[in-house]
Amino acid sequence: MTVAGDPFPHLLFEFVLSYSHWTWVMIAFGETFEALVAGVQGALWALGGVPSVLRSDNLSAATHELKTSGGRALTPRFRAVLEHYGIRSSRITPGRAHENGVAEQAHRRLKALLAQALLVRGHAAFADVAAYDAFVQEVVAYWRNRPAATRLAEERTTFAALPSAAIPSYTTYYPVVRRWSTIRVAHRTYSVPAQLMGHTVEARVHPNVVEVRYRDEVVQTMPRLRKEDEHRIDYRHVIGWLVRKPGAFARYRYREDLYPSVTFRRAYDALTRTHGERADLEYLRVLQLAATAGEMRVTAVLATMLDAGVVFEARTVQAEVAPPVLAVPIVHIPAPDLTVYDALRGGAAA
To answer: 3-class DSSP state for residue 10?
Structure first.
């Protein structure tokens, strides 16, 4: 399966009612606490009521191991979520998935339904995540929830009412922006605008994105990293201090992130051959130009110069990238003819 031409690894969160087999599905990218809470709450609010028991396995997003007994208990955070809705937790014995057979079988059958629907569709390529999600929801609505409608009506009579509001499905951190324009959030590194260096920001980790806020305003939203110790560096955030300290470029930990495309990597290699020790400074100035004048325009100019074998530096690239100077037209406005106004007044008086 591909989205926008790229492979799309993902999971499906599935909430299934044991009597009617009504199903609610959400795309997830990991078994995280935030994805679990978003999935449970999304299902309950779509359902319009609250079942008395939630049965699940012992995933680490909801439970933790008890050192004394060797069993597993709910984490305080997930217990608070269930208490908010008045739901009692029921968990299977670790390692015995068959004890949650309703959900396990439903999940296996849903994947089979999706596979068949993709065969009928003729291909597994989607333009974006929203298109894929719409496809999944259509399959669930037709093949799972349409046949479940009658039994769902019976099941609804046993539900409790929803609380007055949902609770946040994100985790909040308060990191200080380091002098490299980066923050460390949940063992992962993200770059942020350099103007925030030294300030404490609020980072809200959602199931799929990280939202950075400063003084109650959103300053940046970026995809959530999945693996521990991963990093996401936007060269636009760090180029300001790097261009003032070009010597740091050679030892910069995230140096590979400062090549936005193959064209920029080729440009740096070309500058190394022609400018020697000045290559780092010249390249950083080209990168700064991309941040200010537009990456696509700089890429086009670099590609042309590289293909032609032209020796270049930041100044020559800037000359080509600079937008044309627009000529300001000279507008001549003649003096008004007041005799026309006098004639109008005279006519009005008559």
So the answer is: coil
In order, the DSSP letters of 190-207 are: EE--GGGTT-B-EEEE-S
Interatomic CA distance for residues 222 and 232, integer angstroms: 9
Q: For residues 345 and 327, give the distance between their C-alpha atoms in angstroms, rounded to a whole number.
A: 42
How, if at all, do strands 171-173 and 125-126 pair?
Answer: unpaired
The pair of three-digit structure tokens given for residue 314, joined into one six-digit string: 């930041």
In CATH, which superfamily holds the domain spanning 2-156? Ribonuclease H-like superfamily/Ribonuclease H (3.30.420.10)
Cβ-contact 100, 57 below 8 angstroms: yes
Stretch 234-253: mean pLDDT: 92
Q: Are strands 63-65 and 72-74 parallel, antiparallel or unpaired?
A: antiparallel
**CA–CA separation, 346 and 350 (whole Å):** 6
DSSP helix, strand, coil percent of the chain (3-state; round to 5): 45, 20, 35
Q: How many Å apart are CA 107 and CA 12, to the nearest integer?
A: 9
Q: What is the pLDDT of residues 75-119, one digit of tens each?
A: 899 999 999 999 998 887 777 777 777 888 888 999 999 999 999
> pLDDT tens digit string along 300-322?
999 999 999 999 999 999 999 97
Q: Which two tokens stand for residue 85?
A: 């809705």
Asked if 221 contacts 210 with a C-beta cutoff of 8 angstroms, the reply is yes
Instruction: Answer whether residue 39 shows pLDDT above 70.
Output: yes
Q: What stretches of 66-223 show up as alpha helix (H) in DSSP? A: 76-85, 101-121, 129-140, 149-156
Report helix, strand or coil for 7.
Answer: strand
List the beta bridge partners of residue 218: 213
Closest CA to 43 of 29, 30, 56: 56
The full set of domain ranges for the chain reads 2-156, 171-232, 235-321
Q: Residue 77 contacts by C-beta under 8 Å, 6 or more apart in sequence?
A: 33
Whole-number Å distance between alpha carbons of 289 and 105: 56
